[in-house]
Amino acid sequence: MKLILYSMVVLGLFTGYSSSTEGKDASGSKPAHLLLSKQVQNKYLVEGMDIVVKYAIYNIGEQPAVDVQVKEVGFPEDSFDVVSGHASFKLDRIPPHSNNTHTLVVRPKKFGYFNFTSAEVKYRVSDEADDIIQTGASSDPGHGVIISLKNYDKQFSAHILDWIAFAVITLPPLGVPFMLWYSSKSKYESIMRASKRD
Question: So which residues are the signal peptide here (predicted)?
Fold first, then answer.
């Protein structure tokens, strides 16, 4: 029993030592490791209206990430117009344990189902590592439905023309009884005044 216990302790120490030194460079610190988040900020995706996409880059390593390049290939030119921001952008460096954000505004040209794919990121893991280029992908927002502007207006517009038509239609049923009441009231008041004089 003691032999099994000792062998487990030795195995545990060996595993702990190998995992603690794993992923570290010559200086003993972990190289840069970037996490890229891609989020669509809009609640409703509408044809012809702006869609805001936010990219957040986090460096969880102990070295700066150098020559960071983010490339967005998920918004083809035949389906989207870029209104603001850049679909591909570069950053010189991201310090360790810090973040950076970028915002892209696109406008869809057509409605329907759309698959929001992930963006690609490439970077060097440290200043010294010229030949080590790390690649990765952002989080994937998934499928989204871009609704037509006509359907969006039906559901969310002020319906001013509808309210004007409603007022015109309801005016006669409310106006005619009011006119009859007012004329009767005027006649009754004039009779009452005449009877008080006598």
Answer: 1-20
